[in-house]
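User: Write out your own:

AI:
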Amino acid sequence: LLEELLTRKPDDPSALVSLARMKAQQGDFARAQELLTRAGKTRIPRDLLALEWGAVYLVGGQADRARVVLQEVVDLNPRNVRAWALLAAAALELDDERGVEDCYQALNREAKLDATALAIRGQIELQRRKFDAARLDFERALVMSPNNIQLLEQLLRIDAIIGRPDLAEQRVRQLLTIDPASASGNYFMGSLQIRRGDLPLAENSFRKSISKSRMPMALNDLAWLLHARGQNGEAETLAREALAANPKLAAAHDTLGMILLRTNRAGEAEKAFRAGLAINSGDLTFHIHLAEALVQLKQREKARQIVTGLLARTKEMMPDDRDVLLRLRRELDQE
């Protein structure tokens, strides 16, 4: 329809901007920029055009250019909420903490925020682990933009972080109703199914997720599930793919370590467990798995030191981890 309108009215600024926005969302950035250049030759207000350029630069992965354009807008009009929101998105992309803070304070000064501004502020709060504030902003944005997939995904992440499977399941079902192929939706559904012990269903959900997007956490969780079912060949391939995509994913180092341990490669397993602990030294499961590897490697004194240190913390452990720890203690006491 917009193309048809521009055929009849080639200088219609509203149609040019709307079509540019659509083309940017579709990944056709050259066409989007051509349309905005044409819009610039019309009587469109300069600040509105600058906002559209900033948005296109952001979607096109040019956050540095977006920041320059959007900074000019807020310098001219410090009350321009949408400009502050987009500028915050650029600062987040560029890891510019000072810029993020300036935008955050500007957004907090405004009583009325649109869905975009609320979503960006929520993203900042999520990054800063202000989960209650982030949840409130995302939920308010969702009221203004019902069935918005990105907002539902953000709320799902918060539900997972704070351990609210009751809320997560409701949102997962809503998300999968809107987009049955959603990578995030199927990943979170698989996680919920694992909690319920529905491993075949969880495997199916994880496979749907990675068929849409090879998210490292989804690759890792599917690898762990397959390992638990004895399918270590495919599990190892997936765990290594997860680590290639995100070497700082501690859980994937642990998954790979367990696969190596169960396939008689204890030396390699030890290295994997230590790599995981270097990233997250507070995970008791990783320490227990390292002790298992050391026992297999006949380094019993090192294993005993780990086990002894963990015995005082059994109340903090999952039942399966506690059982493994007590088994290791029995084995080490049999010398």
Notes: The chain is about 75% helix and 0% strand. Residues 247 and 253 are 8 Å apart (CA to CA). The radius of gyration is 25 Å. The first helix runs from residue 2 to 8.
